[in-house]
Amino acid sequence: MKKTMSLLLAFSLALALMSFAGAEEALPSVAVVVAGGLGDRSFYDSASGGLELLKAEGVKGTVIECKNDASLFEQSLIAAAESFDFVVAVGWEFWEPLETVAPELPDTKFIFVDNELTGIDNIYAITYAENEGSFLVGYIAAKLSETGVIGAVGGEDNTTINNFMVGYKQGAAYANPDIRVEISYTADYEDPAKGKEHALALYDKGADVIFQVAGKTGEGVFEAAKEKGKYAIGVDSDQKYIAPDVIVCSMIKEVGLSVYDAVTRYVEDGSFPGGTVWNANMKSGLISVGFGDETMPQQVSQALIAEVKALTEMIVSGEIVVETTR
User: Fold this and answer.
1) What is the pTM of this model?
2) DSSP 7-28
3) Is residue 154 one of the residues assigned to a domain?
């Protein structure tokens, strides 16, 4: 299943490159505006990776980091719109600024990542079925757990983060109805020390596998796992390379590829579905589970990976319906 999805994505990218090759003079420019900062090796970096794919094909582009400074959100969008055709807003923090700014800048095409804002003609929103991928890593966590307790560290108690949590808990219960899931929120996406503190508290409660959903803060979860000799699960990108001895897998949502796809479709046929929402799900190939590569230690057996592939097919077909907060 994963191989098929990879082939489809590769084919789509090849077609896109052909379109870019024939339309270099008309390529749009793209600014990616992130609420936090690059270097999280997950969510924001994935969005930046999508821009790098576009730049490799001749697109003019830049990344603007707001570093979680609320005073910069609106002005950063305006500044980006002055120089770029597409402005990609990455983070829920841009909801209210976009509602204000976008109608005043009708010639700018806004892509709002990870949020379901509709009704504004020049905003195309992209949400992700992170609940589906989280179901799978919850299943893996429960299967690997020896204590019957697993955990998750979230960056915030909100709709998006909790969409990971409901899927994680459902997948864990699917594997083991008696599993206990402990969840902790850091209220921060930029502080690994907080992530480590929260993870250590969960490990002390008996958890032996913890899913991090907290951006850069979540890297502290990996440090705690190494210190305690326990397991962790990465998020958004395949993070196993960061700490291959303790990260058993990662829940991947291809933020960068979704941005690339949205801009590519515009280049191909001029389409920009403003006012609508695209939910990038497992069926699209943009939600999956990563296990690093063959050079890294593998804690998840081939038999368990086969179970995960079967569950993936059941989710894609609709046989398993994963709960959601959206």
Assistant:
1) 0.88
2) HHHHHHHHHHHHHHHT-GGGPP
3) yes
